[in-house]
Specification:
Structural class: alpha/beta
Oligomer: single chain
Mean pLDDT: 86
CATH class: Alpha Beta
Radius of gyration: 17 Å
CATH superfamily: Vaccinia Virus protein VP39
Number of domains: 1
Order of helices and strands: HHEHEHHHEHHEEEHEHE
CATH topology: Rossmann fold
Helix content: 25-40%
Largest sheet: 8 strands, mixed
Strand order of the largest sheet: 1-8-7-2-3-5-4-6
Length: 231
């Protein structure tokens, strides 16, 4: 993708100016994920993971008694709904037809719905997995024990040839060692990568956080492209 107009891009983006997609693969890139995707041509990504840092939810969870992990989450750069929609629009552009987006949401967005995020895209919700963390976390009323992964497929919707593992339950139990405020279950991520990609395919995580998707890709011989504002 040509980068003729650099107005509005930050200094981290300008550091990468002149590089191509191949030079950004299989490494930790410190840059905005929206900037990263300008280096990716249409329909190059087989699978994308996206774990937004929700501004709206952080406001709702501002109870005054947050634990240390929640305070760390609040200190991270956070995304408005407009920014989340921009991310999803770009993910839609770079995904191959019938490619998948694994979108992490919490119970607020599960209840309120995310259909407006997918408006004007070719993305379709096809499934959901509940991650049972195996321990009870914070909560003002009920205590949270789970997160939700929306499985989204770019048109055309199909399973044959696009999803090869059939032993993944829709409630996934996995305790993890927390290494980042957005730590996610590596065994689940690895299973999803194996289910929807082949060796050598390109997996993207434009908000990489603790880089767990990158580590999974290295273990099972997938190519990776991703970025985060903080290394």
């Amino acid at each position: 993708m040509k980068l003729n107009n650099l107005e509005g891009f930050g200094p981290l983006f300008l550091f990468f100016k002149g590089k191509n997609m191949e030079e950004l693969m299989n490494k930790k890139n410190q840059m905005n994920g929206l900037d990263l995707m300008t280096f990716i041509d249409n329909e190059k990504i087989k699978l994308a993971f996206f774990d937004p840092q929700y501004r709206g939810v952080m406001d709702k969870l501002n109870y005054g008694n947050e634990g240390s992990r929640q305070k760390k989450r609040a200190e991270l750069p956070q995304m408005s709904e407009e920014i989340i929609i921009n991310f999803i629009s770009e993910i839609n552009r770079v995904l191959v037809p019938s490619g998948h987006l694994m979108l992490w949401i919490d119970k607020f967005h599960l209840v309120e719905g995310i259909h407006k995020w997918l408006k004007n895209t070719n993305l379709n919700i096809v499934d959901m997995i509940t991650w049972d963390k195996g321990k009870i976390g914070m909560g003002y009323r009920s205590r949270r024990k789970s997160e939700y992964l929306m499985i989204i497929q770019k048109s055309p919707k199909r399973v044959k040839g696009c999803w090869t593992l059939h032993n993944i339950p829709d409630v996934w139990q996995e305790k993890i060692i927390i290494t980042h405020a957005h730590s996610k279950p590596p065994l689940l991520q690895k299973a999803l990568i194996e289910a929807t990609t082949n060796e050598g395919d390109l997996v993207m995580d434009p908000a990489s956080g603790g880089w767990s998707v990158f580590e999974c890709c290295k273990e099972i011989n997938r190519n990776f492209i991703g970025s985060d504002l903080i290394l």
